[in-house]
Amino acid sequence: MTPDLECxxxxxxxxxxxxxxxxxxxxxxxxxxSILGPSGCGKTTIMRMIAGFLDPTSGDIRIxxxxxxxxxxxxxxxxxxxxxxALFPMMTIAENIGYGLRRRGMSRxxxxxxVDEALDRIGLPGIGxxxVDELSGGQKQRxxxxxxxxxxxxxLLLDEPLGALDLKLREHMKVxxxxxxxxxxxxxxxxxxxxxxxLVMSDQIAVMNAGRFEQVGSGQDLYYRPGTPxxxxxxxxxxxxxxxxxxxxxxxxxxxxxxxxxxxAAGAALSEGxxxxxxxxxxxxxxxxxxxxxSRFDNQLKGTVTSxxxxxxxxxxxxxxxxxxxxxxxxxxxxxFASLKRGDTVHIGWAADQAACFGAA
Length: 361
Prior knowledge:
CATH superfamily of the largest domain: P-loop containing nucleotide triphosphate hydrolases
Helix content: 10-25%
Strand content: 25-35%
Order of helices and strands: EEEHEEEHHHHEHEHEEHHEEEEEEEEEE
CATH class of the largest domain: Alpha Beta
CATH architecture of the largest domain: 3-Layer(aba) Sandwich
Oligomer: single chain
Number of strands: 20
Strand order of the largest sheet: 6-7-8-3-9-10
């Protein structure tokens, strides 16, 4: 099956700065693909090259198998939704959605039919006569998408479109956007620095750092099987240490962190004496009132609660061990530790295979 979008060995330089460094990826038809990374990593530059607003220094961009490098932006089968939605305030909703169709010279009846169809699809039937300022933030978001979708692009590009919304609406729109993508069955390419947006909505995510893709995979792959230290640290929360391998045998390594903490980790191809970076997620660490309850875990510590970070189901606790190391641990939702308070002594433990371990310079 020909990908809807394919970027091959894409490079973009601005003077001596390489913003995009030899990036290749393909997006299958009808999928939701996100590029996730910190500000300045090059993700918007990729988006602008796909849209035709920037020319690549080298490489190729193909849509439905054909190169679009020589195709001007207004002739490319792509459309773009920006964070600032650029809806026309002097026009009605119907006029906004039908704007691109009028530019194409479509008949009034055909435009009316397509606009009504689009309003039905975004769950806002009958609002075509309203003005933009009568809509909520989420409704404006859906209208901006409908304005693009009536043009039936092969690929819809979305550049941080939820960034201007408040937190609660942003959470709601994550689910809405995924549903809209399925309803229109159009390929979405989405860029964001917000890992939650990417994890919730995407079929595939590319994690970008300093102009390159560090790892491409499903949200589950990136979260549970990070391929690099950057991905392990960027996706989700982690306790992290630098240390040295003291012993490696049978796929299990004995490590000593720079702060003196001894721990066991599994799976990384490292040897005795190697420097390492270790990541352990707060939710993989178990809390108990006694050491006996944690006997099955490779790593066990006793510590003192220094802080409770209450956040409902996402509550965490900070535990300091005898060596002064502080670990962040997710509180179980069972309510078993609901009365835990600062100064309490607890035991914590985690398995060797729940520590992501990488070689470090």
